[in-house]
């Protein structure tokens, strides 16, 4: 079956499970939304991304992309509209980045919008092993976006990222999240995992909070990112601070600190 370019970027999950890894998830992810999946280690965030990527198949339930079961799309077909950044990136080829980029995308060109945010061009002549962890992460993010850039330009891309900002300094954390916001505004869909509550509140349109392999809370960011929800998910206390610009931040409280 060929993927129809008009299907957009909408997922629907109905009672989806993945044995011992995801428990009975039902949700809709629509075109143009930016979802951040948050929760403790082992909560099922990465496993849910694997289901959405098509790499894993649900044990039970129905998972559709554009009203067609995701399993009916081959991985080769999905690769034209969907990219997936694994949490742990490895490469068997210690060659210059421009050759790696060509291997994965058949091009050595970095689109202007990606370069503006991630500054990859100056690194392309270097082997991957010579780069810092943050530089490698920026390259892998850029490589994934380049893979489906033609779909992104049309607003038909699905961008799945497992902890994309984990190895980045503050400057590039904000840069990649700003870039992802931009591609969502173009009509693309972003789903990523994160551990940074404050950045997720700032950049996500929708939040999914997971605990013990279950999606406990989901919806619009402002509705889901509440103190009581966060304390339920993380089994810890938080303090919410609002500054003079009405910007809200969450601070983890010490175990004996009253809130």
Fold and architecture overview:
There is one protein chain. The protein is α/β, with parallel strands linked by helices and about 260 residues long. The chain has one domain (about 5-225): Rossmann fold (3-Layer(aba) Sandwich). Helices cover about 30% and strands about 25% of the residues. It is built from ten helices and twelve strands. A six-stranded mixed beta sheet has the order 6-7-8-3-9-10, with helices on both faces. A four-stranded antiparallel beta sheet has the order 2-1-4-5, with helices on one face. A two-stranded antiparallel sheet has the order 11-12. α3 runs parallel beside α5 and α4 runs antiparallel to α7. It is an enzyme of class 3 (hydrolase). Its EC number is 3.6.3.33. One of its GO terms (molecular function) is ATP binding. It comes from Glaciecola punicea ACAM 611. This is Vitamin B12 transport system ATP-binding protein.
What is the N-to-C succession of helices and strands?
EEEHEEHEHHHHEHEHEEHHEE
The H-level CATH homologous superfamily, spelled out, is P-loop containing nucleotide triphosphate hydrolases
- Counting copies of identical and different chains, the oligomeric state is single chain
Q: Helix/strand/pairing class, anyone?
A: alpha/beta
Helix content: 25-40%
Mean pLDDT: 90
Main β-sheet description:
6 strands, mixed
Poorly predicted tracts of residues: 1-7
Overall geometry: globular
Q: SSE layout and pairings?
A:
Blueprint: E1 11-18, E2 22-29, E3 34-38, H1 45-53, E4 60-65, E5 68-69, H2 75-78, E6 82-85, H3 97-105, H4 112-118, H5 133-147, H6 149-153, E7 158-161, H7 170-185, E8 189-193, H8 197-203, E9 206-211, E10 214-220, H9 221-224, H10 227-234, E11 238-242, E12 248-252
Parallel strand pairs: 3-8, 3-9, 6-7, 7-8
Antiparallel strand pairs: 1-2, 1-4, 4-5, 9-10, 11-12
